[in-house]
Design a protein that fits this description.
By secondary structure, this protein is of the alpha/beta class. Helix content is about 50%, strand content about 15%. It contains 12 helices and 11 strands. It has helices at about 5-15, 35-45, 65-75, 80-95, 105-110, 115-125, 140-150, 165-170, 195-205, 220-225, 235-245, 250-265; strands at about 20-30, 50-55, 100-105, 130, 150-155, 155, 175-180, 190, 210-215, 215, 230-235. It has a 9-stranded parallel sheet with strand order 5-4-3-2-1-11-9-7-6. Helix 2 (about 35-45) runs parallel beside helix 12 (about 250-265), helix 6 packs parallel to helix 7 and helix 10 packs parallel to helix 12 (about 250-265).
Length: about 270
């Protein structure tokens, strides 16, 4: 069965025609439980998110800040399995028809089996994977399977990425490019690093793919700022913190609707 990589191009074309950036949300699978996590995923998609990244929780993350680490720990202590991550993708996609990617470190995929992971993700209606810790030169095994099963391969670039490496990374990327707004781990910031706009410009100089900016987008004001120069705005920590801070799951979903709705409004451009 083929994956849903085509939904990414369709989504970016649609939001461009609507004169706005895409809202890309992130939530980890299995948080606070598998079923509650599925409900949260469907909620953000129905509340205005255009694309969803489902995180595959990892015990030793290199990119995730303390908020997402806390959520990941809750999911792992709850016994989360890769099958639960795939099921989260399947259920959320079936409920909304929107593109859903898995954001994962490489080790779990390698241990699970690269072909097996790609086949199951495609069968679930997944759109692809974001691979933050895989060097392009070591990614052939995944990219071969992704191409065979119509899945996107999204790599991460950063302000420190040289122009030469930027060209190499984007040449191997499909779907969109994930541009890290700053050096460091995920989390909310009061301002967007000035290097973010420069990175988007440098990236667009070497690829025609959409460029989405994440890491440090704390809320609607920062999202609006990023929407002014990027094709997509990635928000994760703020959404996860909303669930963590809620007194119960029902309250968390209500707060999630409010924040996602506000974020969706903020990525619309003036004029």
């Amino acid at each position: 069965m083929s994956g849903a990589v085509h939904l990414l191009a369709d989504t970016f074309a649609r939001v461009s025609a609507e004169n706005r950036a895409a809202l890309v949300a992130y939530l980890p699978a299995g948080f606070p439980t598998v079923e509650a996590g599925i409900e949260a995923a469907v909620t953000v998609l129905r509340s205005g998110a255009d694309i969803l990244e489902i995180g595959l929780p990892h015990s030793d993350p290199v990119l995730d800040g303390p908020v997402i680490q806390t959520a990941d720990d809750i999911a792992l202590r709850g016994g989360l399995k890769i099958a639960d991550v795939i099921r989260t993708v399947e259920r959320a996609h079936a409920a909304t028809g929107k593109p859903i990617l898995v954001m994962t470190y490489w080790n779990p995929v390698a241990r699970y089996g690269v072909e097996r992971f790609a086949v199951e993700l495609a069968a679930a209606g997944g759109a692809g994977c974001i691979l933050p810790d895989v060097p392009v030169q070591e990614s052939a095994a995944w990219r071969e399977q992704a191409a065979a099963h119509d899945l996107a391969t999204v790599f991460v670039v950063a302000p420190s990425t040289t122009d030469e490496r930027l060209a190499r990374i984007t040449a191997a990327t499909t779907g969109f490019v994930y541009a890290a707004a700053l050096m460091g781990v995920t989390g909310t910031r009061d301002t967007v690093d000035s290097a973010a706009a420069g990175l988007v410009g440098r990236t667009r100089a070497v690829t025609g793919l959409p460029v989405c900016v994440g890491i440090g987008v704390s809320g609607p004001d920062r999202a609006a700022e990023v929407a002014g120069f990027a094709d997509g705005v990635i928000v994760g920590t703020a959404l996860v913190k909303t669930l963590l801070d809620a007194p119960d799951h029902t309250a968390g979903l209500t707060a999630l609707v409010a924040l996602t709705t506000e974020l969706a409004r903020s990525v619309r451009r003036e004029g």
